[in-house]
Amino acid sequence: METVDFHKSKKKKVFSPMRRIAFSFFMVILVGSLLLACPFSNQGAVAPYIDHLFIATSATCVTGLVPVVVADQYTLIGQLIIILLIQIGGLGFLTLLNMFIYALRKRLTYTNKIIMQEALNQNSMAAIGVYIKRVIKYTAFFEIVGALLLCIVFVPEFGLVKGIYYGFWHSISAFCNAGFDILGPNSLIPYQTNVLMNLTIAGLIIAGGLGFVVWIDLRMSWRHYKENFKFFRIKTFFSSLSLHTKIVLFATVSLLLGGTLVILFLEYNNPGTLGPLSWGDKILASFFQSTTTRTAGFASVDMASLHDSTKLFMSILMFIGGSPAGTAGGIKTATLVIALMYLHSLQNGYEVVTMFKRRIDDQVVKRSLTIAILSFFVCSLGLFILSMNEGADFIDLIFEVFSAFGTVGLSASLTPTLTVIGKIVIIILMYIGRIGPMTMVLVFAKKYKQKKGKDIVYPVGDVLIG
Q1: Domain boundaries, the chain
Q2: Of 71, 188, 256, 459, which shows the fewest CB atoms inside 10 Å?
Q3: pLDDT tens digits, 290-323
Q4: Residue spans of alpha helices (H) in 39-127
Q5: pTM higher than 0.85, yes or no?
Q6: Using the 8-state DSSP alphabet, how is residue 28 labeled?
């Protein structure tokens, strides 16, 4: 008698790459919050679990918003857990996991390659293993160099052991664009005139925010340039870069310079921020805040003392964020540039979007517009809920919401005063901001099933808009 295997008809449920990415961040946050809630992680007053969950989310999503002072609340073990969460969150848990798989096996499965392609925001699976290896090298290089430079500042002040610890801790936090510090409630305000500290932190933020794709492209183009040209010409070298790198560099330089000038202009005479500083220190502080506003969260001036116009401008910078395939958040610089170029094409009657003598694919344009619209909708919804529950100034709520979604970490002293509902809203915003609104939508999206004979093409209907 023939036996029938009823288990064969059952479909094996497999997490999509998007769901695996979202779930991995969720699990890291959950485990991290439980570890931070343990007695060995805390010193002094016992904080409620919601605060530990908030900080675990903030660290994993490399944000930097904190309801308590990290240096006062957590022991050495707690601080090490936080910096580990920052490192995992900056590179991504699945990225780190596949790094170990690649190191042990020297080979990634097809499924792992697909997941890595989504996690690292890559268009192709080709040479994913090589890409992972380079990510490890660049991360180690920037964080070690940054730590050594910061040790020059910290060792004379805190001693050898503590100075080295502070150097590496803040180097990792800066490169991962986290904005966490263990210096106390004043962040980097005591170091606002320290040139080495400011430039090192800003350099690490920019390095992490540019994205690994850009650094790999710069390295390969530089090698090719040295082999074929005797004299360096910036125009020739720039033309050899990929379109993505050109867009990212153009947007980054424009936003850094523009942000510096606007912040300097708006806060020049503000006695609570740049007013008391010398001309050179005003430029340094403006540049630092222009850099850190785009997803890092370190503060060298008092955010609560900023003019409302400055808070609004910085909220826009926080919404834009850094660049794709890096450690930064926000809608990303490339998304902004493509959306603006699309508007430029409409204005001039062009049928396609072009930049640097290259045509941008229509699907990329649609994806950019979708990300921008979804992101603004998420921020608006979060702002609406906070405005009903929090008794704070509306501009401070805007600042807090965009800081959370852009995974920045700057706050106008609002975070510690948030209600439980407010903290939950910020936690959700940080989570969506880190994994991306498109990823969040695709997590709940149903797989399209094509039905035979059911493909119907409907006639076009006219709709009035605008």
Answers
A1: 17-441
A2: 459
A3: 999 988 889 999 999 999 999 999 999 999 988 8
A4: 49-60, 70-73, 76-91, 93-105, 110-119
A5: yes
A6: H
